[in-house]
Design goal:
Order of helices and strands: EHHEEEEHEHEHEEEHH
Strand order of the largest sheet: 2-10-9-5-6-7-3-4
Number of strands: 10
Distance between the termini: 30 Å
Strand content: 15-25%
Structural class: alpha+beta
Number of helices: 7
Oligomer: single chain
Length: about 200
């Protein structure tokens, strides 16, 4: 399920006014195939990553370049988004499974309540591996062209977008973990330099 952003709704408002549905008004999708755990909605395509910034729990600004040499799974989400909330435990488990490979999951929260909202959510739901990353004004989501939440962008070790998925998914499913490893590419850095962050 994909929760539309305000911008997407405004773009499709004319189609909705004539009796259409939101999904019918969105651009057509190509090549859907039956697959478990949301894998059928993943779109592989190599593209340059636009400049984005986000902050950590302490308010320090980061960009994807701060994680050079690491694969990234950038997840755009919010605590008020039911499919986002549903996939968080799987993202947390995927982050734990991928850490040793030098792949970092960055869940960028667009919650306007910021740190307190996300921290409370993590505590209530038992999120243990994911760090808090914030995008309260949705600037990163806009720059990445997200049409709704959740949207997840997989970035390779060279900093290029390799795939994206709109909607929730079972990120800890073996198929997803293997796919993320393949898309991120092999690590060329020693394991001890990949831990942290």
């Amino acid at each position: 399920m994909l929760v539309p952003t305000r911008r997407t709704v405004l773009k499709v408002a004319p189609a909705l006014a004539t009796g259409g549905t939101l999904l019918a008004a969105l651009p057509a999708r190509q090549g859907l195939a039956a697959s478990p755990s949301g894998l059928n909605r993943l779109r592989e395509a190599e593209a340059s990553l636009p400049p984005i910034t986000f902050t950590d729990a302490e308010g320090k600004e980061y960009t994807p370049a701060d994680f050079a040499g690491r694969g990234l799974v950038i997840n755009l989400w919010a605590t008020w988004c039911p499919p986002c909330v549903a996939e968080m435990p799987a993202l947390d488990r995927a982050a734990a499974a991928l850490a040793a490979d030098g792949i970092l999951v960055l869940p960028l929260s667009s919650d306007r309540g910021g740190l307190n909202t996300v921290q409370g959510f993590y505590e209530r739901t038992g999120v243990r591996t994911l760090r808090i990353w914030l995008d309260p004004r949705g600037a990163a989501a806009r720059a990445l062209g997200a049409r709704g939440l959740p949207t997840t962008v997989i970035v390779d070790r060279q900093g290029r977008e390799r795939a994206r998925l709109e909607g929730d998914a079972a990120w800890d499913a073996p198929e997803f973990v293997a796919l993320i490893r393949r898309l991120a590419g092999p690590s060329t850095r020693p394991a001890e330099t990949l831990r942290g962050a």
